[in-house]
Amino acid sequence: MGPGLVILFSLFGVLKGQGGKQMSIEECCKDGRDRGIDKQDCTALPLISESTTCRIVQEQCCAAVLEDSICTNGINMAKDQGGCDTQFPGSTCETKTAKMCCDCCLLGRAAQEKGLPCDHSLSLGYQCGLVSRACCDDGAPDVETNNNLVSDKDNKTLTVKDNPLLNECSNGLAKCAQECVGNGTCACFKGYKLKPDGKNCEDINECLLGASNCRVGERCINTLGSFRCQREVSCGTGYELTDSNNCKDIDECESGTHNCAPDFMCQNSQGSFRCRPKNQCGDGYIQDALGSCIDINECLAQTGPCHPGQLCMNTVGSFTCQRNSVNCGRGYHLNDNGNRCVDIDECKGPDGACAGHGCINLVGSFRCECKTGFIFNSISRVCEDINECRHYPGRLCAHKCENAVGSYKCSCTQGFKLASDGRNCDDLNECESSPCSQECANVYGSYQCYCRRGYQLSDRDGINCEDIDECALPTGGHICSYRCHNTPGSFHCNCPATGYTLAPNGRSCQDVDECVTGTHTCSETESCFNVQGGFRCLFFECPPNYRRAGENRCERLLCNQTSECLASPLRITYYHLTFPTNIPVPTNVFRMGPSNTVPGDHVQIAIVGGNKGDFFSAQRVPSGGVMAVTRPITEPQDFELSLEMRLLRYGTTSTYLAKVLVFVVQEQPILPYNAIPE
């Protein structure tokens, strides 16, 4: 129908309504259209069915009615005013729709005036194209185009007998949607117009074109092939709506719905009725509501019952006229002698005629000198208040102006206070009332709260400050090397209870050298060796047939030339190493070789003990040999490795043994936030 027509598919069949009633698509649409006519909110309609499809049909049919009404307003403005510059009422969306229909209608009328075809090839929107073509067709003269005859629903089409050119109509080759009028030419019923394809017909929206004959107070509702007029308001009390959409008076007297007493007679009137007494009063009297006869004061009820120059005197049931010698006009009255008219001083009295304003008596009249803020109305002859805010908009107050009797007063919007001149507005420093939980910055017309370091502004109210949990931030795991503890507005780092102390930067943990600080528990016969996070107490004794030759070395005594003695190492040296777990592999951790080299030396090196787990290996290098970690060590543990070096020099083989104590400790300790160390 209209540009906002919603196509509803019939595949949904019937819908289950409230209470088990089966609702059809048409009933859902009719309910939506009726509510759209009543200008209800289409997005919050009461549901008449539990079906989602019915709800969609309700909303879309309701929206179609509202869009048709809005679009019609725009088309009517284009037709009546010939322009679309007037501000449309309603919301922004309604304004855009009305202006679009107005502009598109002007486009169609311009095409018709210039003789251009109404079905232009412009890439307009669907609704704009319909409105443009409708306004173009509406302004075109009533002529037959391409010999296409549009038939009325009540007229009969031509037959093959009347016109032999209708052979294509009779044999079905024309394929017309509604009527075929000869020589394969298609036509449409009344209320439809032929589409550009020359075969199908589309409904003419008489409401959009303004072609309806709806009266004032009636709304045009488009229907397929026609339209109907519906009253926008009810008929009111005393009337009923007829089938022809007219308001007809209800005859309460005939229908017996009046409430007249037995002594009264019912007399119908338009929209009501009157109760007339059955007993009538004579001339000069009038009956009241109770039927009593009351004298009519003809001197007041009639206009000039007496001749000019005569004075009317009322009597019971009649009146008399007496000659009046003097008749004073407005502003005058008879003097005490009753023989001439003198001026009335309207300004006499406590308030005078000007109700507190200045009064100046004039001959036969008076004039008011109104106070400031009032103006004299020459018709009502009173001083009326001047609405300064309406007469001088934007010139009296900086923000808001409120009219008062005889004056006006200015006020300011939120965030401002009235200046000393009573007209301008100064910025209000809201920070003086301490609205923020921490810091406040005044800005023009408002204020801004902000927080101290370690806090952030709450997203809930923008006023209170919340502590920033630095330990829970994405970078919180890197703030402290071991454990992070959040505090209000800040944080602090902790280290393991033993073996570590907090570095001067307050974040890193550094090892405590118990051997230097003297906090170890080694005995006097033991030596203290510091490791990461702790210490070791070391003690060694030289084996039999060896003597101690230093802090960490044992040398073999003279042999008795036995093979067992000669095969033992010349020197046993004790070494201590420490490194953390998970060091890269391979990593050389110990080097062993002769103190000086001689050409022709041959060195062999091997691990001969203590290599549990095969984490270490030895290999020869040009200057001796090295021991390396070849497998990842993931757990802290201690190793007592025996590394043997055989030196062949000048045909003699000498053996040297290195006792290497390796202490593998846990790498730099790091705990997740709020983890509890053991």
TrEMBL record:
Residues 28-62 form the Anaphylatoxin-like domain. It comes from the Eukaryota. GO terms for biological process: extracellular matrix organization. It holds the Pfam family cEGF. One of its GO terms (cellular component) is extracellular region. Residues 1-17 form the signal peptide. Keywords: Calcium, Disulfide bond, EGF-like domain, Extracellular matrix, Glycoprotein, Repeat, Secreted, Signal. GO terms for molecular function: calcium ion binding; peptidase activator activity. SMART domains: ANATO, EGF, EGF_CA. It is found in: Secreted, Extracellular space, Extracellular matrix. Belongs to the fibulin family. Homomultimerizes and interacts with various extracellular matrix components. This is Fibulin-1. It comes from Coregonus suidteri.
